[in-house]
Every structure is written in structure tokens, then in C-alpha cells.
Write a structure and sequence with these properties.
By secondary structure, the chain is of the alpha+beta class. The protein contains 11 helices and 29 strands. Strands 17, 20, 22, 23, 24, 26, 28 and 29 form an 8-stranded antiparallel β-sheet that branches.
Length: 499
């Protein structure tokens, strides 16, 4: 490189020397006397222009000669990180020295061994003047800002992929132990849990790894990540008898999670055929536990009920109290992530034999049964199964009285009036008939199987308006009878007693 620079300098000097020789001694190559006179005359006539140009050319020549002869060029290296130039150094060994110092500082700060991504560093040999080389302070700053590093750690590999990273091998081993123990059931009073096997269903291993510092999790975060994993998006079509809580139970979800996944759905107003979004956690590790559960269970006393038509249906007489027994149960259970996958009773040991309980139960309808049922049913049928004001969950109360009858029983108008509503009701009444009797009084007849009237019809007292059924939100065949005064539900029993 030095020989080449010398050749360049020598060539430049020869070129400049020749140029100035031609400029000064040009007259020699021409007719000396004529050319010299013209040359001198030209200079005298244009000395205001020529002299400054002459001095300027001398200055440029001097600077050029200075750069060629005096200023020296030094061998060096351009430093690139990920194709980005960050510095120019004389010797790239200084890079390794600075990186070693930075490595020690980072390791002391984070208490973990690291490895710089030196494969991203590239060096390009060059030459330059001394003032173009990067200072040590700026070089250290640029390296710190541009050279990334990975931490030496331990990875839990699940299904061939690195799932989580922790600092130490012991941390990963403890994490796996905690995952296994998390699903172990706790024995209650007078119970025993005999663990037979605990296994993680996915293939896994522990191995050394390198990753960026933010990817290294705490034990708590790694534990939570392995349990929850990713979310699996599914949908479910509502069936008869479903509610949000039964759906959540069947799919092993928290009810609040199910409600959050369906912001546009009223949990109390779902119907068969509705589509519900399910947001189900999909764990990265699934744990299966096999154990025997030994516990005591009460054996209810067997009951015999004697029917007595001399007593009201609400009256009961105990002829023989009887007594419950108890037994010890040995059940073989398999859990999948804490949920029962299979359960088999291996053996039962009777500890105490139950004694027979004998009851005498009345069969006569009560006066209230007769009063309410006779308002809209044929004589001699119907009993009250749910009174006005009975709790309905979520702070709600029953707004009418339920009378149990078989499906297809004729339902009569309580009084003459005009049919205000006749059809399907989406709020739980099923097939509903509403009659306006005037004076602010309306009666409701819900859960019908067939409707016999239309809106606007005038009906007489006792006219058949529908056939009883089990439609809407219903626990069995019955008629929901409701009385409203100025659109507000009132107790039908109280109203009927007073009218």
C-alpha cells in the first residue's frame, strides 16, 4: 500500500512539474523573439487578471504538493454492523477489546452471561487520514447502540420448539415440578388422596439456549404462560336448557370469561339456536394425574311415601323417621389439567346401614290451588308449583304463578276482554297470550303449545284461548298466569281473593 501511494505522489509531481514547465517555457518552443514579445505584451495588458490567477495556481499547487508529500494516509478498517457503517478504526482488535469490556459490564448489571452478535460485524479494509478515524469514546457509544447480544440461559423445549427461557437449569426443573403439583387435588376431612402417576403429555426436554434478555421470563410468568398458552377461538350453538353457566361449566371456562367473549349477548336472554363465542385457553403443557380418592359418603335413607286423600297435598306425616347410613368409597380417578377425565368406583365399604323412612303425603288440592286454577282452567285440575315472588336468580322474582298441567290442556280467558298480544315472546314466556280487561287490568298466559286467538279478538269469560305447553324458559309443562295492574305485576292470588 505504501509503494502504491509513493507511485501516485511521484506521478502527480511529474505531471505538475511538466505543466508548469510548459507554462513558463512555452516561448522556447515557438519563435522565441516573436512569441516572447507577444507573451510579455499579453501579460502586461492583462496583468490585473493573470497575476491573481497565477498566484492562485501557485497556492493550489502548493496545497496539492503538501497533501502528496507531507500528509500521509494510514491503513485502517471501516466497521459495519448489520450493513450500517458505525466507525473507522486502525485495528479491528480494538473492537474486540471494547466488546469484552461491555460484555463484563452487562453481565455484572444483569447477573447473566451474554454473547454479542458478532456475526453482524463486518470489516472493510481502507486507508484514510488520521482525522477520519473514530475516537474511542464514540466507538464505544456506537457499539453499545448497534451491537445486539443474547443471554446464555436454559430453555424448556415442548414438541420440538423452545417454549420458555429461564436463567438457570434449576429454575426450569422447579417450573416443571410446580406445573405437575399444580393439579394435585387436596384431600378434605376424612379423605385420602393416593397419587399413582403424574405425567406431562407433551414430549419435552431441558437444554442450554441463547436468547435476547426480554425473552427470559420470571418463574411466575413462565408458569402462567405454560398454563394458559394461547387462546383457541370456537363457537357453540345454544341448545334447549342451556344457560351461560352450564355452557361455561361444560367447556371448563370461567363464566366471566364467557360473558367477556360475548359483549353483545345478554347472558339471561339466550335461546336455542343462538351462537356463542368461546375463548378457551390452550395450555402448552397438559398434565394427567391418576390417583385413588378414598372418602366417606352418606347413604340417604330409603323413603316410602303413602298417599292419603284425606289430607291436603301440602301436609305430610312422618310415620317412621328412618336414618341415613354412610359408606367408604374407593374411586380411581384420572384428571386432565385438573378436570375429571374418568372416574371408576373400585370398591365401596358400608360403614353404617340406612333405615327405612316412611311418610304419609296428602293428595287434596289446597284452597289456593283451586282458587287460581279455576280462574283459567277446567274444574278439578292444576296445582301451584311456583308462587308469586319466588326467587329467580340474579335478584329477580317470579312475576306470576305457575300451575302444573299436562301439555295440551285447554286454557280459558279469566274474564272478557280484548287480545293484546298473541305469539312468540323472546323474553322467556314462549307462546304468550295477553288479554286487556280494561281498567288497567291485563292477564298473561305463558308457555302455551298452541295459541287459539289473534291480536284484536274479543274474547268472553271462559273462552279457550290456547293449549298449555312447555315453550320458552320452562322447567316442565305448566301455565304461567300473571296479573298486571297498569303494566305492573301484582300477586294473582291476592287479586283473585279480592275479586
Amino acid at each position: 500500500m505504501c509503494d502504491k501511494r509513493f507511485q501516485v505522489k511521484l506521478t502527480g509531481l511529474i505531471y505538475l512539474y511538466g505543466s508548469y514547465t510548459l507554462l513558463i517555457f512555452f516561448p522556447v518552443y515557438c519563435n522565441l523573439s516573436i512569441a516572447l514579445r507577444k507573451y510579455i505584451s499579453f501579460i502586461q495588458d492583462n496583468k490585473i487578471i493573470i497575476l491573481p490567477l497565477f498566484y492562485l495556481s501557485l497556492l493550489v499547487f502548493g496545497v496539492f504538493v503538501f497533501n502528496l508529500v507531507v500528509v500521509d494516509y494510514i491503513d485502517g478498517f471501516k466497521v459495519y454492523v448489520n450493513k450500517k457503517e458505525i466507525a473507522m478504526v486502525k485495528d479491528y482488535k480494538v473492537i474486540h477489546s471494547i466488546l469484552a469490556s461491555l460484555e463484563q459490564d452487562i453481565e455484572n448489571k444483569n447477573h447473566i452471561d451474554i454473547v454479542f452478535d458478532e456475526y453482524l460485524l463486518k470489516y472493510h479494509k481502507t486507508e484514510s487520514t488520521l482525522d477520519n478515524f473514530t475516537s474511542l469514546a464514540l466507538l464505544e457509544k456506537n457499539l453499545k447502540e448497534n451491537v445486539t447480544y443474547k443471554c446464555k440461559c436454559w430453555a424448556l423445549v415442548v414438541n420440538g420448539k423452545e417454549a420458555v427461557y429461564l436463567r438457570k437449569k434449576e429454575d426450569v426443573e422447579k417450573l416443571l415440578k410446580d406445573i405437575r403439583n399444580y393439579y394435585i387435588p387436596v384431600a378434605g376431612n376424612n379423605e385420602r388422596i393416593d397419587i399413582r402417576n403424574i405425567k406431562i403429555l407433551e414430549p419435552f426436554k431441558i437444554q442450554p439456549a441463547q436468547t435476547y434478555f426480554p425473552n427470559i421470563l420470571s418463574e411466575d410468568d413462565a408458569f402462567s404462560f405454560l398454563l394458559k398458552g394461547t387462546e383457541q377461538k370456537l363457537t357453540y350453538t345454544v341448545k334447549n336448557g342451556d344457560n351461560f353457566y352450564s355452557i361455561a361449566r361444560d367447556f371448563r371456562l370461567d363464566p366471566s370469561t364467557l360473558i367477556e367473549a360475548n359483549p353483545d349477548v345478554n347472558p339471561l336472554r339466550i335461546r336455542a339456536g343462538d351462537t356463542i363465542n368461546l375463548s378457551m385457553p390452550e395450555p402448552l403443557l397438559n398434565v394427567e394425574i391418576s390417583y385413588q380418592h378414598v372418602y366417606e359418603e352418606i347413604i340417604p335413607a330409603p323413603i316410602i311415601v303413602k298417599r292419603d286423600n284425606t289430607m291436603l297435598r301440602t301436609q305430610t306425616v312422618v310415620e317412621e323417621p328412618g336414618e341415613s347410613g354412610n359408606k367408604r368409597v374407593f374411586a380411581d380417578i384420572v384428571l386432565d389439567n385438573g378436570f375429571i377425565k374418568s372416574r371408576t368406583v373400585a370398591m365401596e365399604e358400608i360403614l353404617k346401614t340406612p333405615r327405612l323412612r316412611i311418610l304419609r303425603q296428602g293428595t287434596q288440592r289446597t284452597p289456593n290451588d283451586i282458587l287460581v286454577a279455576s280462574a283459567f282452567l277446567s274444574p278439578g285440575i292444576g296445582i301451584i308449583t311456583s308462587p308469586f315472588g319466588a326467587p329467580r336468580g340474579h335478584g329477580k322474582r317470579h312475576t306470576g304463578i305457575d300451575i302444573a298441567v299436562g301439555i295440551g290442556t285447554p286454557v280459558h280467558a279469566y274474564r272478557a276482554g280484548t287480545v293484546k298480544y298473541a305469539g312468540w315472546n323472546p323474553w322467556g314466556y314462549g307462546n304468550l297470550v295477553v288479554i286487556d280487561h280494561g281498567g288497567g287490568i291485563e292477564t298473561y298466559y305463558g308457555h302455551n303449545s298452541v295459541i287459539k286467538v289473534e291480536v284484536g279478538d274479543t274474547v268472553a269469560k271462559g273462552q279457550v284461548i290456547s293449549l298449555s305447553g312447555n315453550t320458552g324458559i320452562s322447567t316442565g309443562p305448566h301455565v304461567h298466569f300473571e296479573v298486571r295492574l297498569n303494566h305492573h305485576p301484582i300477586n294473582p292470588l291476592t287479586y283473585l281473593k279480592n275479586h
